[in-house]
Amino acid sequence: MDDRSRVMLSACLGALLGGAAGYLFLTEDGRHVRKRLEPGMDDVLREIRGLRSAAEKARLAAAEGVMVVEDLRRGLKARPAAQWAGRPPAAY
């Protein structure tokens, strides 16, 4: 996509969003639509917050897993190979 297409797309999207915002905030019908949408929007925002919290927990768990693997790798490198002599590592 070249620059000219991006400019045209951005201008069209801006005009569309501006028109929608004008309708919702400047007309009586738009006020009625907003009143009907507000409870649903609260539910959507609550769900988004829950997803954000779950994503943060997943990110922290992944980071902790990476740290554990790195610690294990460093620990295995520090031990001489003769020490294993057919025995599984103590981490198992």
Give a description of the structure.
The chain is an all-alpha fold. It has a domain of 43 residues. Helices cover 82% and strands 0% of the residues. The longest helix has 51 residues. The model has no long low-confidence stretch (mean pLDDT 86).
Low-confidence stretches: none
Largest sheet, if any?
none
Structural class: mainly alpha
Strand percentage lies at: under 5%
Radius of gyration (Å): 28 Å
Helix-strand string:
HH
Helix tally equals 2
Distance between the termini: 53 Å
Q: Can you give the helix content as a percent range?
A: over 70%
On the 0 to 100 scale, the average pLDDT is: 86
The dominant shape is elongated
Number-wise, the strands total: 0
For this entry, give a set of tags.
92 residues, 82% helix, elongated
Please summarize what this structure is.
By secondary structure, this protein is mainly alpha-helical.
Helix and strand layout, with pairings?
Layout: H1 3-26, H2 28-78
Helix pairs in contact: 1-2
